[in-house]
Amino acid sequence: MERELWHGNIDKQQKKINQLNNQGKIAADTTISLHVMDALTRGVDELQNQIELDSTINNNSKIKYLRSIDFLLQGYLANLNRRDFPASLAPALIKAFDQCMTLDKQRKSFAHVIDASHYGVAKILVDALSKYLNDNPGMGGSRLTLKRKYLTMHPDQIMPELAKNPNAYFADSLIKVALSYDVARVYDYAQANNALGDRIRHHSDSAVQLVARIATSKSGQLYFPFLDNLMRGKISLQSIDSVKGNDLSYFKLLVKTRIEYVQRSLPPYNDTANQMQALTEMMARKAREYFIREINALHSVSNPNVRFRRLDGLTAQELYYLAVLGEDEIYTSSYVNGVYPRIFQRMANPRSDSLIMSVHGDYFRKFIKMAAGYNELDDFLNRMDKQNAETMMKAFVIGLEKPRKTNDLEDAVDVADSYSSIMDKNKELAAFILNEVNVSYTKNVQENNKRGQVIYNLLRILFESADTTKKVDLSALLGIPSIYGKDYSNLTDDSGRVVQQVFFYGDEDKDGQNSYINFMAMFRGRPGWRIDERRPEWVTITSTKGKPVYIFANKPLYGEDDPDDKAQNKLIEYLQQRNLTPTVVVHRGHSYHLQTTLHKLPASARIVVLGSCGGYNNLNEVLTACPDAHIISSKQVGTKTVNEPIIQAINDRLLMGKDIDWISMWRELKTRKFATGDAKEKFDDYIPPYKNLGAIFIKAYRKAMGE
To answer: What pLDDT does 468 receive?
Structure first.
């Protein structure tokens, strides 16, 4: 009677499968559907008959196998058409079950059947058999085999899983698989002083040995950018050792390797180098730390031979990468008087098209954007034939629908950012670019490419808005909140307060400490403000006249264990506990502190004053954390002589309960504070929210794409 019960349960599962098949949910292909249904009806019926007619097994064994068939069908239905579980695996599943059952009757291991099966088949089998055939001698090995199959199909899970079971028999083979998938992860695990780290370090494969050797070396971070060439035998650790102690020589090797990798990525090779990102990040780090910060720091030195001495020995290509990778930190004077002219001075034939070709077009949009922003684009284009210049600017605009990385908008944002500068200086070129945008838009409409349609439609609208005679209302056309100002009510909390948070950083050179002193001078001893400095980590500034404005600024602290970080975290915790939500956030300090501020941005921020470069990555991070933020940023590192008047102008309006109107505020600042000379030049480097085309583009793109 119990066997009859389980035969009935199997029949119920078959009826469910039959219903799904009648609804067309098993497989769209008729041939596949026929094979599936034959296996799950006739094939299963034959298994049931085989069990009943087998005189070599007792009643309990027959029940055990019938229940396993029931679980097998349940497993098939539960996983039907999920990833790794196509409906078509049914015939193989029933055949494999028959083999396992036959072996189990003979008390033999069925592990080799699991090993020979597709992952989906093996997974359903092991799950079903483990319920009632757990005592089979092959069950333990089958579970390990299933894990190996899963990890082979999902290499991103290999290292975390091997960390739990480093002595698995398949560990060595899967470490090789993981290496081909994600070298950086194997590198990280090779550093660990545990069983898996030890297994990686004693691996027999030469490539794994190389990664382990680098990972455990004190110079591992310096070797890592060259990993692809090291694994191919194109460079040796000894050759890196010969330059790693010299920043100039090491940077030269980085650039040489980058150019080689970029060439390999183009037809006919189409080869992606391993750890290209690590190489680029190291190049950017060396460019900023060794070269750019040095020439920036000497900005007051009038003798160019002294100020730019660190650029001696760099080739045109090396100076090119210095510029594009140092965009976030390079001063206007460092670029215009130092890096840019030296690029062409170092070329035997100073043609700009030859320069771009020598780096295989790498970062050429970024370079053009910077040339436009620093008023060097005409010079750049005049250094090549007119036809080549047109081709270059056409290439600048087309192909933006094809991202360099998944969902990457950096190239499109560079094009958007450059247009206003081009429009101001060269209306003929601006008209040419706008025409190419329209051509690309039409092309993407014809190809039904949504990403391309959105990108070029947004660029078209943004570019037309640059012509002030057309009086384009960007907010209305793009379907985003107003970019021209912020309503006072949008900046207050439920209690009618405007809460601001200011991030300061302590520095060895006292820059952050001095910035804090200057900031406090805006309020200290001034009527209408009360200052509370009793807490060691932060200061509280509150208005005593007009509307309630609360300003919280962490004190710049310098020392071991990053006291700034601890102070900022305590302040953030304090604000959260008291439901104080900042709607105005200000970053003060060196641009290399900016990433820390960006990681701590409150989602409530409506106005973000960066005071340092608003490059794509920074804008993207701000708008990811605070989608509705208006961003004030600079083309270069910020200065207190501009930051403080901007902050004061914002506060003056908030105290009166006035809406923030960026256009009128910017006009007033330009007229009163920054009308002429050096002050005007510094102020002109700052971009108000309504002119921040990069930020506007990102907002509008996300809205249009439903992100």
So the answer is: 65
